[in-house]
């Protein structure tokens, strides 16, 4: 019995493993992202990033990359930051919100393989979740996302020492 308990995963690892398994459904060549919604210890939904259902995805027709410029203030200096993103895909967090009910999100936790981008963070901030747990950092939006979560009182934490299941890992591009 003691060896079974030693091998048993903690809840964070268990749900993050499920998020990584969901990410394997993505066909995005740049980044596979998975997300799960958990209420208490009950799994309420899973999602991954990809093109809208029935539409060609990036692996079929290529990424639809757009460039954006953002003015950031760092150390009293204004700096223009260039960002690239694909607009063909719906992010995992967005799909999770589209395919789960508000009642299941109230007071829930979202586990997501990657730190949410600014758009997803905004959507999650209004979704009713109380906690967001992620594994990989997304440095492009990190500081402002952390500030937003603090303002909204949403617990926002990274699983720094987490190791995803080997069959779910992909090389992440910018």
Brief rundown of the structure:
The chain is α/β, with parallel strands linked by helices. The protein contains seven helices and seven strands, in the order ααββαββααβαβαβ.
Please characterize this protein's 3D structure:
With about 170 residues, the protein is α/β, with parallel strands linked by helices. It is built from seven helices and seven strands; from the N terminus they run H-H-E-E-H-E-E-H-H-E-H-E-H-E. A hairpin with a 2-residue loop joins strand 1 (about 35-40) and strand 2 (about 40-50). Helix 6 runs parallel beside helix 7. The mean pLDDT is about 90.
Q: What features would you highlight for this structure?
A:
single chain; 174 residues; alpha/beta; 7 strands; 28% strand; globular
Average pLDDT number: 91
The amount of helix comes to 25-40%
Strands of the biggest beta sheet: in what spatial order? Answer: 2-1-5-6-7
- Distance from N terminus to C terminus (CA atoms, Å) equals 45 Å
Radius of gyration: 17 Å
H/E series? HHEEHEEHHEHEHE
Structural class: alpha/beta
Number of helices: 7
Please report which band the strand proportion falls in: under 5%, 5-15%, 15-25%, 25-35%, 35-45% or over 45%: 25-35%
Largest sheet: 5 strands, mixed
Pick out the low-confidence regions: none
Number of strands: 7
**Morphology:** globular
Protein name: dCMP deaminase family protein
Pfam families: dCMP_cyt_deam_1
Family: Belongs to the cytidine and deoxycytidylate deaminase family.
Keywords: Hydrolase, Metal-binding, Zinc
